[in-house]
Amino acid sequence: MPPKRGFSRERVRAELKRGGRLPLHLAMRCRVRYFTDGVALGSSDFLEDFFGEKRAYFGPRRKTGARRMRGAE
User: Fold this and answer.
1) How far is Cα 9 from Cα 17, in angstroms, rounded to an integer?
2) Contact 26, 12 (CB under 8 A)
3) pTM for this structure?
4) Which listed residue, of 9, 21, 47, 56, carries a Cα 20 to 30 Å from 3's Cα?
């Protein structure tokens, strides 16, 4: 069986634990969850409009829609 391409989850966790930041393309590979859980991508204005339209789906403490992806440049 050929070796897997890419990087291991352990390697990424070790880098993040050291306070490092992954290049965006590597962080996106780690954050597939964003795409499987549902995500909206776009400008801040677009995301705020989306948030306003879907407000009932978010908890009462959430004040804005836009969020930066953690752990990436």
Assistant:
1) 12
2) yes
3) 0.48
4) 21
Q: How far apart are CA 6 and CA 32, in angstroms?
A: 14
| Backbone CA torsion sign across 62, 34, 15, 68 | negative
Q: Per-residue pLDDT for the chain (73 aa), expressed as one digit of tens each?
A: 666 666 678 877 887 788 877 777 777 776 666 666 667 778 989 999 999 999 999 899 999 888 876 666 5
CA 10 – CA 54 distance, rounded (Å): 36
If you compute the radius of gyration of the chain from its CA atoms, what whole number of angstroms results? 16
Q: How far apart are CA 60 and CA 67, in angstroms?
A: 16
